[in-house]
Design a protein that fits this description.
single chain, alpha/beta, nine-stranded mixed beta sheet, 15 helices, 11 strands, elongated
């Protein structure tokens, strides 16, 4: 079997000297890649006390998904735990170690998404995230909480990887985390919690006869004993029990697949089926809405920025969610406004200040309605301050746009007014690159070609576009008189 495609990419890093470092570009390259951008996504993240083998497990799961992709295994094989040691060679993937040296110092994405086809034929892009803090006991708990919050917020399944059992310390950590996550969400929006699914993954489990989800559910119910407060930030929680991977697995980055015990491979195969099969894949949702890779990128970048820049006492997960949801609504509304205005400058309205103002007013009302009532990812309405900031942003944009257009229009008018009308027409034909005898259709075609190149949305600039438009008006006026033959149109 071939080695898995891809490599780990660090997105968030923390060290005591520089604090948090966020590589937004790297995240964008993954989530906006053509194989991910327009598809709904499933994000599986693993976190847990160092070192308990979560990077090793993620690498094994990637290997199993690749086997399904290559056709060497089927979903039915995984469901039945059919994964034997005929798979040879080293296990490559996320970096891991079995010693005291920390490898995962923040949050890593696997660069290559896996693709799974759902029962309705749609493809979902599956992404893997490896998240862990530092084994240094002096590391601030707020840092650990922030890393876990980022991991849980961007994932649709958050694996909490633990050795042997769920301890009271583990539950206390989740309880503290849930407190931050739910201190306003439960009261205001019980329908949508901050995070989706939490999966306790108990490694080296002593319950030999109860491996898997069935035994895990019974164990989790017994452990929680009716107290669901530690997991209250999540929509749902499950538990999966696994055996020890084998005495020959020493945790080095070059472990041979053949060194892993069959019982562990069988258990991992069943886990892969329960997580990734078309029937079970948990797509990422925000505020109850499935999101694409591009939409997740917009949300994640604002979320990470918020959490790593805010003071610890302000790092409320609920506030972070509300902040990011409103940022996404603002971005959607502003982009729609800019698109509408760029369509306006493609028309004669660009040459008429009053008409431009009228069209701007309509574009502004459309954008404001989107911002107030976005269709996706909104739990709280924007505050009055956010509305004011949004209006100021549009006003500033339009003032600058109008100043540019007014300056270019006045400059071009002044230049044209100093030229006789016949020369203006010659200049206009030359500017378009057509002969005076060209048909209206030829002129229209040439205008569209030049407009495509000079339009600001296409990498051009306002000066070239306004100049082109004004030359076109000169030709339109010359061809709109009564002397034109039937093939001449009043407005090209």
């Amino acid at each position: 079997m071939s080695q898995p495609l891809g490599y780990p990419v660090e997105i968030v890093h923390y060290n005591n000297e520089e604090g948090f470092i966020f590589d937004e570009t790297a995240l964008g390259e993954i989530l906006k890649d053509p194989t991910v951008a327009g598809k709904e996504v499933m994000v599986v993240a693993a976190a847990g006390a160092f070192p308990v083998g979560k990077s090793f497990l993620l690498s094994l799961l990637i290997r199993m998904l690749d086997a399904v992709r290559e056709g060497t295994k089927t979903w039915e094989d995984l469901a039945n735990g059919l994964w034997t040691n005929d798979d040879t060679g080293p296990l490559r993937g996320f970096h891991w170690t079995d010693g005291d040296e920390m490898v995962t110092g923040g949050l890593y994405f696997w660069s290559q998404p896996c693709q799974v086809e759902l029962q309705d034929g749609r493809e979902v892009a599956i992404l893997f995230v490896d998240c862990q803090g530092s084994p240094d006991v002096k590391l601030q708990l707020s840092v650990e909480s922030t890393l876990f919050a980022i991991s849980a917020a961007i994932s649709s399944v958050q694996i909490y990887n633990l050795p042997g059992r769920i301890s009271s310390t583990d539950l206390n950590y989740l309880k503290m985390f849930s407190h931050h996550g739910c201190k306003t969400f439960d009261a205001e929006n019980a329908e949508h919690k901050p995070f989706q699914k939490l999966l306790f993954l108990i490694r080296d489990c002593p319950f030999i006869e109860d491996y898997g989800m069935y035994g895990g559910k019974a164990y989790l119910d017994t452990t929680l004993n009716g107290n669901h407060n530690p997991i209250s930030a999540f929509e749902m929680a499950d538990c999966f029990l696994m055996p020890r991977p084998g005495l020959n697995v020493d945790g080095r980055n070059m472990d041979e697949i053949s060194d892993i015990d069959d019982s562990f491979l069988e258990s991992a195969a069943r886990l892969a089926y329960l997580l990734f099969s078309p029937l079970n894949a948990q797509r990422k949702r925000i505020a109850g809405q499935f999101v694409t890779g591009t939409e997740l990128f917009g949300y994640a970048k604002d979320y990470v920025r918020y959490l790593i820049s805010a003071q610890p006492e302000l790092r409320s997960i609920s506030d972070a969610n509300a902040f990011c949801q409103n940022k996404q609504a603002e971005e959607e509304a502003f982009n729609n406004y800019k698109t509408a205005m760029h369509e306006v400058i493609s028309t004669a309205a660009i040459l008429d200040p009053d008409s431009l103002d009228e069209h701007q007013g309509a574009a502004f009302e459309m954008a404001l309605n989107i911002f107030r009532n976005p269709t996706k990812m909104r739990l709280r309405p924007p505050t009055d301050d956010q509305k004011t900031q949004f209006i100021d942003k549009i006003d500033s944009y339009y003032r600058q746009l109008k100043m540019q257009i007014d300056f270019i229009r006045n400059e071009t008018n002044q230049r044209l007014n100093n030229i006789p009308e016949d020369e203006q027409l010659d200049l206009a034909y030359d500017y378009l690159g057509v002969n005076m005898t060209a048909t209206n259709e030829e002129i229209r075609r040439r205008y569209r070609e030049k407009a495509e190149l000079s339009h600001p949305d296409k990498g051009g600039n306002y000066k070239d576009f306004v100049t082109l438009r004004m030359h076109m008006v000169v030709i339109e006026k010359a061809r709109s008189g009564p002397r034109l033959s039937k093939n001449r149109c009043v407005y090209l």
